[in-house]
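Support reply, case 0932

Customer input (verbatim):
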Amino acid sequence: MTVRKLSARPAARRARRRGRPDPAFSARTQILIGAAEAFGRNGYADTSVEDVLRAAGVSRRTFYRFFRNKDDVFAQLYETATLLFVQAMRNAIAIGDTPEQKLRNAIDTYLRAPEDVGPVFGVLMTESSRPGTPLYERRQAVIDELVSLFADDARAHRGRDIDPLIVRGIIAAAERIALHVFCEAPGDPSLKQRARRALLHIASAALSPPDGEGDADGAGDAPAASDAPAPAAADARCEPAAAREPDRP
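Our regenerated output:
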């Protein structure tokens, strides 16, 4: 899940079939890659359009052909990352032969996300956790999509419905643990293995119906939601965004 895996637009695909490059597509991709580098290095607040221009190696005129301002390119970067992540999660679940393997694949995909996205991962996570921002709304839509994905798969392969709050709790735990690994020791394989074991334990316990209460329609699942981790939006990263200064020229 990297910005280098941007899907080509239809116009770009048609141009390649005709044997001609699509300069507009390559320039836009180049800007997004440069933006990921600049935001990952400086953080959101301390990155200007000029920083993005230098990292991308494009002119200001080229930048404004595709993006209105810093907020716009950052939002498009987040949109790209989330689209690729959801697709990676769909693929991870699809290739699992058993519910347990599907769960392991999904957890591995979550823990691999920081490495795939790179240093900008922490910035995207932090900014998308601020209520009232467009990125926060997009993040909620992504979570809703993942909840539906897991719920549909559980219904098909576990033979019962899962309380959506339980799935949200698992997602919240995965977000927090992936961010913890990214911030504390991104290159430490032992910490990543501990994180994987912790998430497997949390998810397996949350998805197991209480003794004698689980059935095909999900009766008995709802009480387990109280044991799920609190939603990520409630943690210290999710505070009202401070007023930001306009982009530096």
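We compared this against your earlier run and they match. Two observations from our side: The CA atoms of residues 78 and 124 lie 7 Å apart. Residues 1-21, 214-246 have pLDDT under 50 and may be disordered. Please reopen the case if you see a mismatch on your end.
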